[in-house]
Design goal:
One of its GO terms (molecular function) is prephenate dehydratase activity. Its EC number is 4.2.1.51. Pathway: Amino-acid biosynthesis; L-phenylalanine biosynthesis; phenylpyruvate from prephenate: step 1/1. With 354 residues, the chain is of the alpha+beta class. The chain has three domains: 82 residues, 3-Layer(aba) Sandwich (D-Maltodextrin-Binding Protein, domain 2), CATH 3.40.190.10; 96 residues, D-Maltodextrin-Binding Protein, domain 2, CATH 3.40.190; 96 residues, Alpha-Beta Plaits. Helices cover 30% and strands 23% of the residues. Strand 1 and strand 2 form a beta hairpin. About 6% of the residues have low confidence.
């Protein structure tokens, strides 16, 4: 995922971390320029570790913001030590999917990340029922632990490369429940201390150019779509009532071009004893025509069974031709009324637009 977000490896030094929290630690401390962390999986849902760091309920990461996203197709392998030859029904080891390549009777325990276990539940229910599963911080750590077991009775769910690095055999390939198993990653950076203007309004900070998720990529997409649209209309008769210089038409076309181009996220709490408080907050988005794409929640730690909400929606705080997002942020009702403890978490280019 990091390599897809930063494809030019000559310009970037990649620094691996053991846990998701360490990614946030490194970004907050300015030890790195950017961090990449998994946010959600198409099969197993939100990555709780990342959501917990974004919640920042202990004020550990006050300056971290989301500035990009990347999607990665995820394939899981069962890795371990082979105790028997390939099964007789396996004609091509490389093409066999979601079925064991060899007997798994010697496997007594399997290590992996909780997300990986959640994405491979069908395989475990079919072939490893009753085997002990042990959750660890990462799939690479799982491979290391399986390799360290001299008895060969431990296995790991991880990527094939992780197995190659520690000398494990592939016991089964592509054991994920769904072929379209995909994980979305967030690109994180530290918000500069000088990101507010003299009048207190937060300003956009600069991003490098030439990356799949940065501003120049958005400009390229808009230009390409505009050229395609112009070409499609060139052979069509113009309506006598259309008015080529109509400003409203131009504004509408620009708004349509920006539809789904960006996403943003905010977090907030609501007064839990006020009927309809959450509905009132969501109504602020509806009144401004902002399309919600996801809602998550975590305990707020303010009081038991009260929650911090995360809302992701289409639109950008920095590139907002109709003023919908800026109107939301500047709304007195939003800031001082129905939403409490609200925090802006970032705007970024939507990598799966339409």
């Amino acid at each position: 995922a990091t390599k897809s977000a930063f494809p030019n490896q000559d310009e970037w030094e990649l620094t691996p971390t053991t846990t998701i929290r360490e990614v946030f630690d490194e970004v907050q401390a300015s030890n790195v320029d950017f961090g990449v962390a998994p946010f959600e999986n198409s099969t197993h849902g939100t990555v709780s570790f990342t959501l917990d760091c974004l919640a920042d309920r202990l004020a550990t990461y006050p300056n971290i913001t989301i500035c990009g996203e990347a999607y990665l197709d995820v394939h899981h392998f069962l890795l371990g030590r082979r105790k028997s030859p390939l099964l007789s029904n396996i004609d091509d080891e490389k093409s066999a999917k979601a079925t064991p390549l060899t007997s798994l009777s010697h496997v007594k325990r399997v290590y992996s990340h909780p997300q990986a276990f959640g994405q491979t539940a069908k395989f475990f229910a079919t072939y490893l029922k009753g085997v002990e599963t042990i959750e660890v911080s990462s799939t690479s750590k799982a491979a290391e632990l399986a390799a360290a077991d001299a008895t060969g009775s431990s296995a790991a769910v991880a990527g094939e490369v992780a197995g190659e690095m520690v000398g494990l055999d592939v016991l089964a390939r592509c054991i994920e429940d769904r072929e379209d198993n995909t994980t979305r990653f967030f690109v994180l950076r530290r918000r500069p201390c000088s990101s507010r203007s003299d009048d207190g309004v937060e300003q956009e900070f600069s991003l490098p150019e030439g990356l799949p998720w940065t501003t120049d990529r958005a400009e390229s997409l808009l230009a390409s779509e505009a050229a395609s649209s112009s070409s499609a209309r060139s052979g069509s008769p113009v309506s006598a009532t259309s008015g080529s210089g109509n400003g409203d038409d131009a504004t509408a076309e620009k708004a349509d071009a920006y539809k789904g181009l960006y996403k943003s996220m905010v977090s907030f709490t609501v007064p839990h004893h006020t009927p309809g408080a959450l509905a009132d907050v969501l109504g602020c988005f509806k009144r401004r025509g902002l399309n919600l794409t996801s809602i998550n929640s975590l305990p707020s730690l303010i009081a038991p069974f009260q929650y911090l909400f995360f809302v992701e929606f289409e639109g950008s705080r920095w590139d907002d031709p109709e003023g919908r997002v800026s109107g939301l942020v500047g709304d007195v009702e939003w800031v001082e009324g129905v939403a409490e403890r609200w925090r802006w978490l970032g705007s970024w280019l939507n990598q799966r637009r339409r």
